[in-house]
Amino acid sequence: MQIARTIEDARFMIMEAKTRALQEGRSTVTGLVPTMGYLHQGHASLLRRAKEECGVRVLSIFVNPIQFGPKEDLSRYPRNEDGDFQLAEENGVDVVLLPSVEEMYPRPIQTSVRVAGVTERLCGASRPGHFDGVATVVSKLFNIVQPDKAYFGMKDAQQVAVIEQMIFDLNIPVEIVPCPIVREADGLALSSRNVYLGGEERRQALILSETLRLTEGWLAECQGDFAAVKEKMAAHIRTMPLADIDYVDLMLYPDIRPVYGLPQEEWTGQRLLAALAVRFGTTRLIDNRLFELGMPKGAISNV
Ligand code: AMP
To answer: Which residues pair with 35 in a beta bridge?
Structure first.
């Protein structure tokens, strides 16, 4: 495994890895797994999928300042280079791209990629500018690495919708591979930010996955009254005194369009994203689950 701290080194190492793959008669399909580091088994699942499908595997680790708001956790975002390298090596990474902020943004950036529509709700509404930062850095990473495939977790389902929209609109020749959410045994979705949680916060945070589990039954019985389901979800989360709701919502996916009040023809057979963002102390957690509407017991979580 090689480690590139500059864009030039990364391009050279990726070219070498492709040449090696070609010489050894292996696939030269190149897979990119973009991350912000402090890797866990959720990231590892993306790396393993890339290993199955690609002969050349690139991991990027970059805590992207332009996707953080002024009051967010950029300065305290957790880091662990050595742990990340070990997990990357164990999961078949060929090249790690680990650029500094100066390497990625040597001058104030004057160009940005802004996806409208799918960014209007959920995290797009509660974190203004966040998805501009994400779309811009992912475009840069795609141009640096030139992958054939890129792997993203459905933990950030709206992010997947944003990137899919971006590559469609801009004809970017990268196949997006959405990967299922990886959870702890007790249901908590893995996240680098889970390390911030105190013991009691960690215990109460289980309300997120529990609410999403219960939502399946509430949806099955709701007869199109999605506003009532949303209310039940919020009420269930509020049973935990430390839970401070940012949003609880039900959106058609991948449009990220509210489902409330729509005629049945507009939602039957569509996918519905149940999405949560909840603060426990200073830690904001997100979780979600995808359902197929209009099919009996048709939960298709982890699509
Ligand atoms: P991050 O480092 O948080 O920016 O995440 C990098 C990638 O890993 C994103 O595509 C995330 O959606 C994905 N990811 C993070 N947590 C999980 C998880 N628990 N299960 C699956 N994918 C995840």
So the answer is: 61
